[in-house]
Amino acid sequence: MVRRNSDIEIQLPDAGPTPLSDTDSLTDVEMISDETILNLPPHIAARFYRKSSKARRSSSSRRSSISSLHSHASAGSPSADHIAQHLRRTSILESRKARLADRALHAEKVRLRAALAKAATRNLQIEERALAAQQARERLLADITAKCEDQVKRAKKKAEDQRDKKAAEEARLRLEMTEKFAEAEKRRAAYQTHRRRRTSSLPATEEKKMSKEVMKSITEDAAARQIQRVWRTHHAKMVMGQFRTLNLSVDRVREMSFEEVGALLSSGELLDTMTKVLRLCGLQDMEGGPLGERGAVRTFLSSYLIVTHPKEVLSSNGDQEQDLISKARELLVVFDQVTALLSSGCCSPSVITADLQTLCESHNVFFSAFHAWKSHDSTVLIEIMVAQFVELELIWQTVKNDKAGGAAEDYRQGIRQNQVLLLARLKRLAGPERHMELIRDSLKKAKREKRRAASKQAIPRSAEAAPPTTEVLTESMTSPLSESFNNVDAAVFQELDKQRTSPHERFTKILTPLPENRELVHELLVNKEFKIEEAPYTEPRRQIMKQMCETMRTSVEAGHGTNWTVAMATVIQDRLLRSLQRGNSLYVIISEVLDPKLVQGQCEAGTFSYDNFFEFMNNILPRLCAPYRDPVVKAYIEDTSGDAIDRLARLMSIIDLLSLDQTNFMIQLAAPQLIEEAPGYEQRTFDRGVADGSISLEKTHRFWRIHRKIIVDEMKKRDPEGIQGEPHPAAARVYAQGLTDTVFSNALVSEDLIPETLSLDRRRLERIHARAFQIVATASILLTAKNLLKRDARSQWKTEADRILSLDFNEISADRVQSILQSTHPMPPSASAQLAGTIKRVLSPVATACLAASPQLVVTTETSASEMPSHSETIPSFVDPVARLILSRLRSHVLSRLSASSANERVRATTTASQNLAAAGMPEFVNEVGKLVEELEKVREVDWLCHGGVYEGLPPLQPSKMQITHLSDLTPPSQERTWLTAPHPTLPLLATCSSDKTVRIYSLTNFTLLSTITGGHKRSVRTAAWKPHIEGESVLATGSFDATVGIWRRWDNYGNAAAEESNEDEADDEEWRFAVLLDGHDSEVKSVSWSASGMLLATCSRDKSIWIWEDLDDGDNNFETVAVMQEHGGDVKCVSWHPSEECLASGSYDDTIRIWREDLDDWGQVACLKGHEGTVWFVDWEREIEGGSGPRLLSCSDDKTVRVWKRQVQASSEPGALASASTGIPSIIRPAGGDEIWEQEALLPKAHELAVYAVAWSKTSGLVASTGADGRIALYQERILESADASGAQSEWTLLDVKDGAHGIYEINHVAWAKRADRGVQEEEVLVSTADDGSVKVWTIQ
């Protein structure tokens, strides 16, 4: 039988070899039998070929099977039966193998799919595990490193301790050994002295033979060495003998005084002897050479001082000093041992080499320690000197602002001298470069410490226990700080804004010390040390408390004191508990003692005592207030004057201060985080405001457009031919121009002038403006005084300037200023009178500017219109020419410094500031102007940081198609203010009204003065108007501040060339005839106007009335009063007649426009136009248009707007009613038209930043011009838009051009359209403007 691979072959006697079934064997077994027939034992055969216990049924299928055939073939043979069973089993096993193979293949596929699924995340998991392992490894390494460092430190310390112990033990053993050697030497010396002579044991002959042999064995070199050895021993004995005579020991030096020791150690004999001793010992200095220098010897001798007198030698008792003392003591111990051996005479230096080596080591260690201590001691000296320098500087910073008595100057001289000496010494000790660095660093550190100490003094004691975290801050102050850390929906912001507009919210804002969110973070950006000032917060509360005390006293007298007591206790409890945390002991005490219910019960029972209440508050307040408030609290406690209400008022003032300190402390805690988040917060808040419409960029656009145009015009003037192309000024330059013009204008800093991005800096800009006015006023006073005394304008009057600037300009007097100057610079009476006039002129604008910049409690009161000042009185501006010049130069100087773009330009502008200001007449104000520039630079920096994107997103300036171009000035001008210009209706003439009581007639042909009307009025001539429709004669009506109206006549021949050429001089010399004086108004006449027919003259006055006069034209210049209307509630500023109808329009101080018509036999109001929010300064009518509903009306106001009004057509039962109004039918037979409806048709684009004083509607081109207090002329055009609906065409007003600074820095009072024509030239329309400077300018539209 052969078995391979689990296959069994069985050979039978009646059959060939047949394959058999597999077995369970796992190995290959070979069993060979040639012809042997294997008959299985019965028990084995039963195991493999067991028959079924059931009887098998015979069937055709079973019979046809292989096993059946075999069974039939071998029926009756047991082996055949076995073979059949074997074959069946073999087939079954084969099928099972196939199934197992399929299953294995399927399992492999499943395994591959699982492997692919895991492969995607395996790398990530590996990386995460690697990263985690790396981090764990780093942490483990860090822990191991820390532990190793600790172990190394402990090991080093232990090694040092062991080394010190070992050194001490060696020193002790060496000392004992030395003592033993010394004792042995003594015994040997004694033995040699007392011993008997040794006799020779040899015969004499032998001794002689031996000596001869010894003498023969010594050579010359050996003899020389022996002699040298003997000489060194002798020299050592001599040196040590000299040392012994000095008697220098530690015990002796310790018994001597420090001065005696110093004298001993510095003696020449001691130094020489010690030099020899140290050389004998073989000591060397640290550089390796022999110890021969006196300095090294003194270093060695200093060890005696260090050991015996450490307090006098060493500056401190630190570790380094203790180490130096121990090293010196070890050195002296070893030195005493060596000197003892050398002094004995039995030991030469060559014998005690080990001891000398120990001495050298100890000397080297001491020398190194000594020099380390010496360098440290010099460092300490340097630090002391630097501290002295810093202390002197801090003293100077404290007293430098004290101008009284010259104390600052005395301190300055003494301090500077001492600082110079300290600098010289520091330069020698620390070096020429390092000493200044040390001083600078120390000054910075001292200033920081000073600020830190001051801030600690300002921390309330109630806040010391609270953790200084932002979380506590935001929890304790939910509003308004918390918003800087949280995002709030826009709807919530809008609701908060609505609440802020309520009176209660405004009142609460006044009483709340903490500003709004935007304002707070903005102030922190500008100033990191921002804190709420005391006066603006406490003053309103003091006024309110004063009124409450009066009310309380009245209520107490009426028997209602209990309610007030309970209310005050409630308020005090609430305000005190705000500064404390819940659970604090003080919080519990205050809650219990000031419980409103408890106080009310005590009041009702009659047991409440104000004495006990105030005693309780006296105990509580010192435990709550900041340390620097202790004097104020102590003064309150000691002040027991007045009744209980007065003491309550003082108590509320103290609580106000505590609340203010608490708020400032919390701002200080939150400042770092707020400053970090402030730019982003401001950007988000500003963008949100722009998005929801609460913030408009109109003023920002106007600010940018106006000042960019100013720079562009200036650049075009420098490049008139346009060689460099279209100007594109840098954004920084435009911003600097706008910021400078806003702050340094000759007027108040109006809110309309400030862009929305700078709205939070309005108060700051007002303060800078007020300070600039103070500088300008002081500089103009000093410059005037220098000129009067004929002094150099560049000379510095620093003391006088500082004294004037230190005064309160709100309460300053001219005599006070003049006394300051005359105390140091006496002047004659004439010069003093001129200076007094200058002082009076410049102080009033400064006082107004300072009043506008100071925060005030707003109290609303009703004031009559007649009591309100006019615009010329309320706007502070310098009228003194010197002050205007100084202001202009200051503006230019600041602009040049702000416009510096590079670092080199800024440095150059700063370094040359003193020269430029001296040339400008302000040499005393270099520091003050520098502070203004620094503050403006900080404002610009913060604004660009937060709103730079707003400016970058502004649209570029579009060039206008039409521009206002200056043509000429009318000469000569008036020397005083010119109010109005009236163009002649038919001739190229102009009549100008001036404050010098005259009317000037100019020619528009050659722009020269033709004649002057004088003598008719006693005060300023405010207005004038030409009478229309008159031939050969010019009639002019003038109105004056003397409450009269004058009528002037003159014959003219203009247009007759021959007559004009022949009688030109004669015509020019002809005077105007004063025809009649109309008297009736009670106050200043503001405006006059002729009707279209020339028969009626309307006048208006400050007395709130309008008079209509009728020219009877009877040849006698008679006028009759037709009507007097007094419906206006304030000054009537202007009147203007309809271009074709007898319809009059008037504008008034009461913010209204009224339309007047004649109704049967009297004049009455037919319409009242309301819409303006300020005084209506001027009205003008549109030209008559055929087929229209009537000309429209144009008006301008103090609210900086220009509006167009239109009359609405009414359906009337009488069709001819309206038609008759324009037919010229006499008014006496015209039926009553009733009231008219006028509506605002258009609001022209805003172009003015201040009040608009005049408008003019061109009757030729339809253009509209406006001007006002900002010195600007604006030009508008109406464009017709086609409409698809039935309403017809619509119009749109556009701003064509704006001429800034048309009259320089002066306000423009009037603008008018006029016609002019040169000889042989076609007639053209020009624009004429008049201003406060007295000039009249003519402009063309191109």
TrEMBL record:
The reply on keyword ATP-binding is no
Which stretches does UniProt call biased (Low complexity)? 61-80
Q: Where is this region: Disordered?
A: 1-24, 51-82, 188-211, 447-471
Output the SUPFAM superfamilies linked to this UniProt entry.
WD40 repeat-like (SSF50978)
Q: Which SMART domains match?
A: WD40 (SM00320)
Keywords from UniProt, A to Z, are: Coiled coil, Repeat, WD repeat
Query: Repeat WD: residue ranges?
Result: 1014-1048, 1078-1110, 1125-1156, 1169-1206, 1327-1342
Which chain positions lie within coiled-coil regions?
Answer: 117-185
Query: Cellular component GO terms, alphabetically?
Result: cytosolic [4Fe-4S] assembly targeting complex
InterPro entries to which the protein is assigned, alphabetical: CIAO1/Cia1, Tcp11, WD40/YVTN_repeat-like_dom_sf, WD40_repeat_dom_sf, WD40_rpt
Pfam families named among the record's database cross-references? Tcp11, WD40
Compositional bias ranges of the Basic residues kind: 51-60
Question: What family does the database annotate?
Answer: Belongs to the TCP11 family.
- What is the protein name stated in its UniProt record? Probable cytosolic iron-sulfur protein assembly protein 1
